[in-house]
Write a structure and sequence with these properties.
This protein is of the alpha+beta class and about 550 residues long. The chain has three domains: about 240 residues, no CATH class; about 100 residues, Ubiquitin-like (UB roll), CATH 3.10.20; about 190 residues, Nucleotide cyclase, GGDEF domain (Alpha-Beta Plaits, 2-Layer Sandwich), CATH 3.30.70.1230. It contains 18 helices and 13 strands. The strands form two sheets. Strands 6, 7, 8, 9, 10, 11, 12 and 13 form an eight-stranded mixed β-sheet that branches. A five-stranded mixed β-sheet has the order 2-1-5-3-4, covered by helices on one side. β1 and β2 form a beta hairpin. α5 crosses α7. The longest helix is centred in the middle third of the chain and has 36 residues. The two termini are about 50 Å apart.
Length: about 550
Amino acid sequence: MGAIQVRRVRLGAAFVLLTYLILHFSNHALGLVSLDAMETGRRWFLAIWRSQLGTLALYGAIVVHGGLALWLLYQRRTLRMPAWEAAQYTLGLVLPALLASHVVGTRIAWWQAGSDDRYARLLFHFWVQAPERGAWQAVALAVAWTHACIGVHYWLRFRPWYPRAVGWLFTVALLLPTLALAGFVAGGREVSVLARTPGWTDALMRATHPPGAAETAVLGRVRNGFLDAYLVALGAVLAARGVRTLWQRRRSVRILYPADRVVTVPVGVSVLEASRLAGILHASVCGGRGRCSTCRVRVVRGLADLPLASLAEQRVLARVGAAPDVRLACQVRPVRDVAVLPLLAPSIAAADAFGSDVRQGREQEVAVLFADLRGFTRVAEHKLPYDVVFILNRYFEAVGGAIQEAGGIPNQFTGDGVMALFGVETGVELGCRQAVAAARAIVRHLAALNRELGEELQVPLRIGIGIHAGPAIVGRMGYGEGVYLTAVGDTVHVASRLEQLTKEYGCALVLSEQVASRAALDVSAFPRHELTVRNRGGLLAVRVIDDLGRLESG
């Protein structure tokens, strides 16, 4: 099973465990209502997780998730990793020790000794008999939830919709464990009061059948046996790593970096892992998972001796149009000496790249609009410079206002041209509808501007607009005060090309059929053309719109 398949199986197991945590914490939160509400919720909870299917899903997920975590730990060539990944690993590794007693005292005691692990008995134990165990449970709750949240965050951070949802998800991630702990405290206080009622404790013990001394001793051996097995497994993984390292040192390769820096590593270590081992700063937004291209290097020497790129690596390199001598540092594992040159400066951490600043950019589908005045050079050559600036500012005001009214982001004003993005925050389907609406508004605003400046213009201002939709890298780019949100990629080039085609077709708008389809527009009445675009394979179908009023009624 390859690393990608291992992570997919582990992710599926993680979903099961996350579902269990959410339901379990929600049950705890019912303590804010009453102890009876907690017990009612528990009956529904157990109906799911103590059924045959629920038991198989839960404990299967625990075994798969934990076992594959140890396997991935063995597979790592270096334990140097980003702080967030180290935190997730550490929390995950301590969880078995934190939860062993709780699992044995509830599920195993119910299974082996017939004990009823209802909330009243457990809260009585945690709040009256052994308060230190209650604090231990609170710590276990926080550790389990933090481990899960880190995993969810770094799984979702590449999704184009995630920046819009991260605030809501963070609120839920903070609120759920807080309510669970508050319910735990409220239920504990209620049980503490009930425990002072004469006869209540004896009645509870008779009803729940807590383990006796002999049964407690057996359960203790079960717990210790589990912990011993876990520690042996963890020790075996670490020992196997050490043996592998000693064996691989018999076969090592040298990786030459710029400034004549040489790193010697065993065969099987990736270039990115070698950089981390040597403390060399190396960009890697996705954490070395082959899901971005920021770690890519140019192979200066030894390219022919490198193992062939996997299909996944080839797809990533093809997306960025990489040269034949460029490889992903996280994926290439040299078997002979090699010289490399990292292509991106590691000046921005992964956390910065996927936060609200989006400095490193993220890939998402957007609609891109280009608009450009036609024949403005002839208009300008008969005007004073200040008059030209005045007309251009009025034009930019009209076009920029139309774009913003439609929900777009005007982000580039160059000469007499404008570029705008749509769907960055709302999704590409709505973005396409907004882009078409902006085109109609631009034409209306320009007509109004022509009437306003009639005496200043020898001929009316005319405009050409191109719209295309597809994947692009969206991020804040530039330097210093000139940093702004923009997009780069094939989609942007195509939209610019469509705007230029308005000159050839003598029309106001050329839009791709992808935009028409996603905007749910009927464009059957408009001429259809298929054309080739430079650096793009296949034909692109477009519609030539000579009257945007007809498009609105389509």
